[in-house]
Amino acid sequence: MSKIKVILLSILIYVLGFTPFKTSAVEVRDIVFPVEAGWDYNFSDTYGAARSGGRSHEGTDIMVEQMTPLVAAVSGRVTYLVEHDQGWGLAIYIEDNEGYSYRYLHINNDTPGTDDGKEIRSYAFPKNIVRGARVTAGQVVAFAGDSGNAEWVAHHLHFEIWTPERASINAYPSLMAAIGQPVISEDNVTASSYHFMRDLELGSEGDDVKALQVYLNVNGFYVASSGAGSTGQETTYFGPATQDALARFQRAKGISPATGFFGVITRTFINEEGQVTDESNNSLVEVGWLVKDKLSPRVYYVATNLELMWIVSEDSARRNFGSDWYLNIKEFESLDDLKLPYGDYVL
């Protein structure tokens, strides 16, 4: 490659905001949590996790409902705005006075309550949010959705922080600090060391209630922000705060009904770390599986809300699940036996 081509490629990489550099150093930025107060959310530390195509995850996924208002994490200037999906979704970048960039991906591109992809601007960004605009920390700058490569998963905000040297840093510690919570070590984010044996509900008492509160707090579904039930102050009593935190966990994991009752489905999910038991036949179905009916060529993806999403083509399968996707298919006598609803397509 000629020197001129190398220079041009370097300029292109810089302009587009892509970089091969990533830092693993822990850095905590003083930010406002990017989801407007009063709206449900949950998140965990997935920075550096493997992604398709050999990529690694450079942000934190904050799971929210469609059209959840997203706010500026800092005061600064809008440096980049994507209003029409070109493959990776609608996005907004905000840069603070120190040159740090805060990036919001998968902004909404649908009419509320649909997945129509019409890209009506007012459902993505407030009118005054344009490239070059000054914003204040806490100001609504966008609305959450599933644009880009999030079309086949749940609505969420993919949030990134980049240094002035154009290196990404783990946003999780800054997000935890923004909500006044201690940073949980990676080893404890998803692990549950307690095996639950019984149903729990309002009024239940015992060490298993305390273990459940610890599990919810560790995974970001906080029972309380301070006092009884908060991190380090879990109790043995199952009260309304525990019920509310559990219901938020169930909604996020697609466990139905999400009422805050700790029954066999939720218990199995936690004990098996991500598996759900179908109560009628005791078969295990794991979120993320590729499944098919023995008598049908159609392959489905088990989405996070436990819907079966039809993978419409081999190209789609390779694009979303890798070249060896067909090696991971689990075949059933009949998918109807799983009693899972059918959802959208994986395109």
Automatic annotation (TrEMBL):
One example of the protein's molecular function in GO is: metalloendopeptidase activity
Q: Where is the M23ase beta-sheet core domain?
A: 56-165
Write down the Pfam families for this protein, in alphabetical order.
Answer: Peptidase_M23, PG_binding_1
Q: Which residues form the Peptidoglycan binding-like domain?
A: 206-267
Xref: CDD domains? M23_peptidase (cd12797)
- Gene3D superfamilies xrefs: Glucose Permease (Domain IIA), PGBD-like superfamily/PGBD
InterPro entries membership: Cell_wall_metabolism_enzyme, Dup_hybrid_motif, M23ase_b-sheet_dom, Peptidoglycan-bd-like, PGBD-like_sf, PGBDSf
Q: Which domain of life is it from?
A: Bacteria
Protein name stated in the entry: Peptidase M23 domain-containing protein
Q: Which organism is it from?
A: Candidatus Komeilibacteria bacterium RIFOXYC1_FULL_37_11
Source organism phylogeny: Bacteria, Candidatus Komeiliibacteriota
